[in-house]
Amino acid sequence: MNAMRITPLLGSKALTNYSIAGCLACAAWSIASALSVPEATSRALELNPCFLDFGAVQQGDVLRGNINLHNRSTVSVHDLEIVKSCTCTSVHISNNTLAPGDSASALLELSTDRANGHFEQILMVNYQLGSGLDVHHLPIQVSADVTPEVTIIPSRQLEFDSDEKALCELVVKSNGAAKVLVQNAYSNSTAIRVERLDGQGSGPQQRILVEYLPSKWNRITTNALITLETTSTIQSHLTVPVCIASPITH
């Protein structure tokens, strides 16, 4: 066991949710665009709320929120649209043209199937005022803390010294109401043996034995991948990266 090290994954949250990096990149652009809007223009269209925090949710939940858009100006608001930064979100606006004093509602639906951990997204409300041709922008911020359906412990990269045999265990924990079962476990490297310990583990937990076999290491490949096939429809394939570190020579 002393030959095995565990090191943090770089950007582990980003790996679990392909959309987070894109959403945050869009967020930077969105906020910069919103700050460039003159005060009088930004007050022409009122958003209520302009921030939706869904709090703690379970992976697989569909989050829904309503936003009221109110034209406070003395001219029409037209070509009203909400631009999303993630394919996990859908938006429907009841009316894209508002006379002075009129309001419209926007329904947001967000799928959490591919989210994990803290999730943030910025949506941009675009519109034009009266006879002007300028497109104005207002941001809507959406956030949630998503508990994954399945968690692997440790949730980090496994590291083995190339010349020392080692054993370690992975614990697969179900976080939802239904227990998720590991149906198959394997590695793409012959130097990494993976075995399900059937009947081992209490409650929603399952144990997976991982063994590093230095005699089968080809001394070329330094990275491997462990794959766990599960009964989950959301996380049907879980992966754990493995690094085989060569000894330091002087």
List the helices and strands and how they pair.
Layout: E1 4-7, H1 12-16, H2 18-35, H3 39-42, E2 45-48, E3 51-58, E4 62-71, E5 77-83, E6 89-93, E7 103-111, E8 117-129, E9 136-147, E10 150-153, E11 157-161, E12 166-174, E13 182-187, E14 192-196, E15 205-212, E16 223-230, E17 237-245
Parallel strand pairs: 3-9, 11-17
Antiparallel strand pairs: 1-11, 2-4, 4-7, 5-8, 6-7, 8-9, 10-12, 12-15, 13-16, 14-15, 16-17
Helix content: 10-25%
Task: Characterize the main sheet.
Answer: 5 strands, mixed
- CATH architecture designation of the largest domain: Sandwich
Number of helices: 3
Structural class: mainly beta
CATH-defined topology of the largest domain:
Immunoglobulin-like
Number of DSSP-assigned strands: 17
Element-by-element helix/strand order: EHHHEEEEEEEEEEEEEEEE
CATH superfamily of the largest domain: Immunoglobulins
Strand portion, in percent?
A: over 45%
Q: How far is the N terminus from the C terminus?
A: 25 Å
Let me know the average pLDDT.
82
The poorly predicted ranges are 1-41
Shape label = elongated
Number of domains: 2
Record the strand order, biggest sheet: 1-11-17-16-13
Reading off the top of the CATH hierarchy, the class of the largest domain is best stated as Mainly Beta
- Using only C-alpha atoms, the radius of gyration works out to 25 Å
